[in-house]
Predict the 3D structure of the following.
Amino acid sequence: MSEEKKKLSLIAFSGDFDKLTAVFTLATGAASVGYQVNIFFTFWGLDAIKQKKGRSFIGGNFLTKIFGFMMGGLHVTPTSRFNFWGLGPRIFRYLMRKNNVATLEELVEAAVALGVNLYACEMAMHVLGLKQSDFIHEVKDTLGVATFLEISEGGRTMFI
Amino acid sequence: MATHTLDITNEHCPMTFVKTKLKLAQIADGDILEVLLTEGEPLNNLPRSAKEQGYNVLEVKHLEGKIHKVVIQK
């Protein structure tokens, strides 16, 4: 095929279970039908790519460590509605399994297997005291706005 | 040239496409992949997206009820 590959770039700002499910559903679906997919994780969205999937005191100082603990990782992401102190995501996971719909964790695995490009926001990492080594190995790089604009150029971009 | 089968009749979006794409990545060039799928989104889009990605869609056949077979050559 001579024409350039179609491209989808997602800005994953939210750390909510349901919105991250939307991010990874779009990312894996698009990658499967031949798109080049980039996800730029920033602020709360960084929770999705942390190595520690539960709660842990990661961060550079006392305050960011407390933040790190409260934000947590992929397994403890809250739903944007009906969270019920953490019960909401458990109910959704149960319903997804029961209906044979991929769970958030399965979608993240699929995104990695499909070669979706994962990037972390350098500025948000700095604020939250996070290092690239705090993230899963598949995170390709830490970026700023200028580089994100360059890699997303010519494709579609969505903010979730 | 081997023939492989993939049943995605019980899968939902986006795993219908994800499983097909990962299977196509696994098999050798020239191999055949027979995908069993259901009407609607998978049947409407899978043959088209396979063609767009440069694969050869050899056959789209109705089997029974809502189940169809799409034969793709890598």
About this structure: Chain B touches chain A through 16 residues (CB under 8 Å). The radius of gyration of chain B is 11 Å. The longest strand of chain B covers residues 56-64. Residues 37 and 43 of chain B are 7 Å apart (CA to CA).
